[in-house]
Amino acid sequence: MDCNGQFSITGWDENILSEKREGVKQTHASITQAYEGSMAGQSDVEFLMSYQTSMLALFVGFESFVGVIDGRRGTVSFKHDGKFVNGIASSNFSSIDGSATGELSNCTISGTFESAEGGKANYTINLTE
C-alpha cells in the first residue's frame, strides 16, 4: 500500500568533520522531524554528508521514527541513501529488518522523500506485511 504525506524539519545541528577546500567537506547532521499524513509522529535522524560543492552532496544515515503509519502504532528505524542537488534533498529509504515494534513489527517499509519549500519534504512510502 502506498502512503503519502509531508514532514517538517523541527531541528538541524550540522558540524564539519573534515574540510579539504571551500565547499568540499564531510559533515554530521542531527535532525528532528515532525510527520503528518499517512505517517504521523516524530523522528530523529543522523546523517553523514559528503559535499562536493555547496550545491552538491551525498548523504547516508539512520532515522528513528515513533508514531503511526497507515493506522499502525509503533516505532521503526530507516536506512537512508540520499543526495542534495541544487537546493533539493531527496532520499530512498527502507526499514531495517527487526527494528519495527508494536503494530508495525510485521511490516516492511520503503519509500522516498524530496524536499519542498520552507523546511518541508514530501514523502511516499510502501508498507507491506
Automatic annotation (TrEMBL):
Q: Which SUPFAM superfamilies match?
A: SO1590-like
InterPro entries recorded for this chain?
A: DUF3224, SO1590-like_sf
Q: What is this protein called?
A: DUF3224 domain-containing protein
Protein source organism: Alteromonas naphthalenivorans
Q: Upper taxonomic classification of the species?
A: Bacteria, Pseudomonadati, Pseudomonadota, Gammaproteobacteria, Alteromonadales
